Structures are given as structure tokens and as C-alpha cells.
Amino acid sequence: MNREQSKLAYKEALQFIPGGVNSPVRALKGVGEQPLFVGKAEGAELTDVDGNRFTDFCLSWGVFILGHNHPQVNKAAMEAISNGTSYGIPSLQETELARRVCESLPGMERVRFVSSGTEAVMSAVRLARGFTNRPVIVKFDGCYHGHVDHLLVAAGSGAATLGSASSAGVPGEFVSHTVSLPFNDREALQTVFREKGDRIAAVIVEPVPANMGVINPADGFLHQLRELTGQSGALLIFDEVITGFRLSPGGAQETFGVIPDLTTVGKILGGGFPAAAFGGRADIMSRLAPDGPVYQAGTLSGNPVAMSAGIATLQLLSEEGFHANLNRKASRFIRRLESIAAGKGVRINSQGSMFTLFFSDSEVNSFEDAKQTDHAAFGRFFRYMLQNGFYISPSPFEACFISAAHSDGELCRFIEAFDKFFC
Ligand SMILES: *Cc1c(COP(=O)(O)O)cnc(C)c1O
After folding, report:
1. What is the dotted CATH code of the domain comprising 4-69+321-421?
2. What pairs with residue 200 in β-bridges?
3. Does ligand 1 lie within 6 Å of residue 397's CB atom?
């Protein structure tokens, strides 16, 4: 496979952009590769600047549940553009998307739009602290909540492969109110609530973590979170930036039947444009400016182009059986991968249409487990799949995604390549 143009593009990018990329994992360092420069994407297919084609299982990190370049989403965005691209004044699209988000997610009574998942989480945490008048935030090792200073403690995703639990540039004082616990550890949770319960503003969690690879919550774990936060007057925040609109129309909160006080969503929400949101109980959301004392704002928040793409996306997702069909297709695919992987030192963790291949002989139920898996073998697998025309998420600390656009043929070819890898 000739990748000369990508190599040249990378060299040039390095002269102007740190590491040549605008988000670290894209550099593909963790898997011993050089970044791909994409020229075009359509359905489940990426075409790089050399004209090589790849079936995409990363899908802009989970954004494109409908596949790239969806005609109806594009049409909505184009129509919006023809009316001007930003007003800084309310538009009808904002209320329309807000209504759809509130109708979709069981815990969402009021919602406010922002431009990135990081911003959504940052705002939700500030609101939780403002509402409870308490300082402490409990998170879980390996959960990633964007690059918010005080949440960069044992963060997953790209921060995990940086080799340090946190980040330079975050003073110790900034994280002094952040407690990070092992995911799925019910005892650690009880202990922290016993010791600090009346000082905890919120527990924030990816209900199905996808940023340490996909990890499933142990039976009753999310219910325990709900119970302990409720008893102590702390808020429960579900970071559904990945799982929202993916696992089901109502995200993980619908799938697991646990309703948080606040929820963050992103990725799928903007239909490929920068949009994210946080929201939840009306009494909590009313503490936000202009009604309340918790400040939060944004120049491009509720951007009409992003809102329009989001409306078109949620409209398509609300079609009868959308999630059931996607999850069924994914589950058939994953079961076939599992039958090949059996006895070969590979574990496949999955939930709905997201999955992670871990090179490990034992189960992977926490960040500690994920760190113990064979990262060199994952790197070999990534390079092999890339060579064979598949772009999977380039780290064992990330999830792969299946979209409605993946054809049976594309999934079959993936299964064949996966099988051959072990020959
Ligand atoms: C991607 C992600 C974020 C951050 O969103 P950005 O739009 O990249 O800032 C936050 N939380 C979770 C769970 C995510 O997957």
C-alpha cells in the first residue's frame, strides 16, 4: 500500500502543528504508525490522500452512527448554511433539537448546548458544585471526561497512552477535590461515601466506559451509584458523550434503567459538527445563568448549522427499530469475531454497536485490567488491519464502532482479515 502523500502531508503538518495533529491519538504513535491524511469519507469508507480506501471502525470516534456523509444530514446542514452560519441570537433550531434531546433521554428535563464534550462536562461539574455547595468530585480510573483540568486524574483514552496518570500543567491544588476510584469496585465506593459523603458534589461516570476500551458495568454497579449519591445528597452525572443516542435512543440510562441527575452528550449529537450538551433535572438546571448564579456561556453554543445536522441525525435515529437493527447486526458480527478469537488470547468486550479487542488471556473489567493487556500485540493487529484496508480505533484504550452504513460484505471482510491475522 502506497502512503507517500500521507507521509509528505505529515512532514509538512509537523512544521506547523505540534506532533502534526490536532488531537494526540490521531498521530498513531501508540500503534507504531504514522497518521493517515483523509481526503474523503462516505458511508463506512475512508479514502486517504493517496487514494487508498479503508473501512472505518472509528467513525470520527463514534460520531457517525449513520455513516459518513449522510445525504439527509448534509442537506439539513447545507440548508442551514444558506441562511447564515451563526447569529449569537436564539434560533428555532435550538429549541427543536432541545425538545428532541429531552424526549430521547429519560433524565433530561432541560438541556443547554455547548460546542464540545469537554465543555459539556466542565459545565456540568461546575453546576453540580454550585447546586450542592460541595467541592468533591468522584470519578473512575480510566474514564475520560474530556481534557478538563480537574478531571485529568487517571484519565483514559489518549491520556492513558501518554504514560502518566495525569497531565503536566495541572497544579496539584486543581485536582485536590477529585477522587478517582477503580471502576466496578463497590467497596471503594462505599468507603469514599462513608468518609466524605457530605462533601461529595457529584459522582461522574461513563456508564459504559469506552475510553479505556469498552468495559461493562458489573451487575448492580450503576444502581449502587444511584443509591449512594441519592442518600448523601450528591448528584449523579452520566457522561454519555459516547453512549448517548448510541446504545439506545435514551443512551445507557435507558439501557440500564438508571436515571442520573445530570447527563452530558456529544459526538453523535452534532451529526459531524461541533455540538455537545449537558442537562438534566429542571431544578438543577435552573441554577444556571441567566436564572441562577452558576455562570456558563458560549459564542457558538447552539450554532444553527450544528443544530440542524443534529436534528436530522436524531430524526433518522428515531425511525422504528433503528437501534434494535444496528445492535442486532453488531451482535452477530461480534459473536463471529468471538468464535474466531476463542483460545487465541483475545477478549472482545462489547455493548450495543461498540466493541474493543483486548489482547489478553483474562477478563478485562477495569482500567488496571486494560493496562495489563498486550499493547504490542494490539499494535501489530492495528498495522495488519490498516494494511488490509481497515481503520480501527488506534488504541486498546478506545472503542471501535459499527454504523448503520456498514454492509454485510464489509463486516464479512473484516471477519476474514481478523481470522487470517491468527494464521
Ligand atoms: C469524547 C469524550 C469527551 C470529550 O468530548 P470532546 O468533544 O472531545 O471534548 C468527554 N467524555 C467522553 C465520555 C468522551 O468520549
Report:
1. 3.90.1150.10
2. 136
3. no
Q: Is the dihedral of CA 75, 81, 87, 88 positive or negative?
A: positive
CA of residue 116 to ligand 1 center, whole Å: 7
CATH 3.90.1150.10-classified regions of the chain: 4-69+321-421
Summarize pLDDT for 19-67 with one digit per residue, the tens: 999 999 999 999 999 999 999 999 999 999 999 999 999 999 999 999 9
User: In degrees rounded to 5, what are phi and psi of residue 98?
Assistant: -60, -45
Catalytic site positions: 144, 239, 267
pLDDT, one tens digit per residue, over 172-193 is 888 889 999 999 999 999 999 9
Give, for ligand 1, the residue of 206, 211, 398 to mutate: max count of ligand atoms closer than 8 Å to Cβ.
211
3-state percent helix, strand, coil for the chain, nearest multiple of 5? 45, 15, 40
Ligand 1 atom with the smallest distance to the CA of 143 is: 13
Confidence band for 166, pLDDT divided at 50, 70 and 90: low
Query: Which CATH architecture group holds 71-317?
Result: 3-Layer(aba) Sandwich (3.40)
**Binding site membership of 118 for ligand 1 (Cβ less than 6 Å):** yes
